[in-house]
Task: structure prediction
Amino acid sequence: MDQVVVLKTYSREPTAGGLGGAALTMVSVFDRRDEAAGPVATLAIDDQVPQAREADCDALAYELASEVPPVAVSFPPLSSCTVDECAKTRAAWLRANHDLFRVRQMLDFVASSPPEQRAFLWAAQGGSESGERLMSYESDDVGPNTALEFYFGPYAEYRLQAIRIAYARLWKIFHDHEVGGLQLDIECTPDGPGDICNTTRPGGHHAVKSNMKLCDKAYSTPSQAFDVPRLVLHESMHHMFVPWQNTTPRLSPIMDTHTHGHGALCAGQLVTDKGYGLKKIKHFASYENDREDDCWHNNFAFRNNDTYAYAAATIGTYIRFGYLARWPLEHPPEEQEEGYLPDPDCGTPGVNTPPPGFSDPLSKCYKSNGELVCPGAHGGLLPGDLDIAVICPPL
Ligand SMILES: [Zn+2]
Result:
């Protein structure tokens, strides 16, 4: 055996406020060339095994990101990180992993809904447990920002497909840590005086294709739980191409910088800038000239790096902290079927669900590829648990 995979299993006890501290319960070692054969060695961890908790980056990361429901995660290699930086980086990775899962869950739900309902679901906002619509936590000017339409513009089938492909690729990068054949690694607070971290001082940047650098700002921002997951999502998306087809098949890079025209002929007021932040994201998603022409802005929206990062991290953060508990807030208009009763485990009481209507994919059930999937329908998990292993019987 020349390469091994080490799997560490942590458990967290439920507490009144969520999940408690992470305790290492098992370490297993697999032959990397034959993981399917099962572990070649395992060690159950109990009180008898000495542990240095303060030096266990993974345990610290789980404690920092204690609002993240149980989720399998694969951490990329880190370099030149202190234990504190390591824990914060991995906490951000855990959160981003969750957030990516959530936005894909929404997209999959739209894609598996009947075609006539997709535009409705695309524009649908989310709300709190009590059904209150959410406004942006960033700024009053932004308004409600829980609909896919807010980030990616009006619904179009070809854009839905392209966005799903891009997020699927990002998910793959998050799990196999491979960017264009190179291994993704994250470097903490590089020392070099010429490094962008130490000159223009962003939260992070990437120098070469697979090397992501996180700077001081990423470890000191007061909004660690949102900013850093957003940053690692953003930086992991560089060098990605997405296929799309409106009229002709195309393959386009996802980028930061775009040149967009405005006005009656879409040729005036040419602006070349980076699509960073919610205002720019909103601009690409919603610009229209006097003739209600978007001047290709909507097609920039789904090729703008930060749009993907903001969509996932915003929706994911709202869900992690319990602000966003329902989506869509309103259900697509539908014909009532007579005598239909929802399954008590798989349906939302009082709502005609499951489909052809819909149930709540974020806290209850959703339909994926024709299969109804419910979070912990029989396992007694808490609402919001990220367990989609329970498959409800087909209708
Ligand atoms: Zn513009």
